[in-house]
Design goal:
By secondary structure, the chain is α+β, with helices and mostly antiparallel strands. 28% of the residues lie in helices and 24% in strands.
Length: 136
């Protein structure tokens, strides 16, 4: 297995069914990707097919997760990316285009210039590390 690849690709095809798991109007959601960098910086990733957007529940979940990290004194970003990869092929997330992102405790923003997922995460980590060095 290559780093970032699937350890159990057959299991990745198995759908999780959350039927009957509802509290008020809430139901579970999934997150396509998550990074925990040294317990200080957190990245949530959600991919959509070109032209589709987050459901409001997914949007709220990502907002609340990043806000929770901010309240704890950590940096966090939620990234929404898009792809047009056929369903029978793997989506190589690093090359996908970022549609928008939610940073710490702010608001959803569109990228000022076209960015790939890996590029935005690299930038996020670099800024977090630079800020940490300045605070000493």
């Amino acid at each position: 297995m290559t780093p970032g690849g699937f350890q159990y690709p057959e299991r990745a095809k198995q759908l999780m069914n959350y039927e009957g798991m509802e509290w008020e109007s809430m139901t579970p959601t999934d997150i396509d990707g998550f990074l925990d960098y040294r317990g200080k910086y957190f990245v949530y990733m959600e991919g959509k097919v070109v032209g589709k957007d987050l459901l409001r529940g997914q949007e709220l979940a990502l907002e609340n997760a990043t806000k929770s990290h901010a309240k704890a004194g950590h940096k966090a970003i939620a990234i929404v990316f898009e792809h047009d990869t056929p369903v029978e092929q793997q989506v190589f997330v690093k090359n996908c285009r970022v549609v928008r992102y939610y940073l710490n405790n702010s608001e959803w923003r569109e990228t000022q210039q076209p960015r790939k997922v890996k590029e935005l995460i690299d930038l996020f980590f670099a800024r977090c590390i630079a800020e940490e060095k300045q605070s000493f």
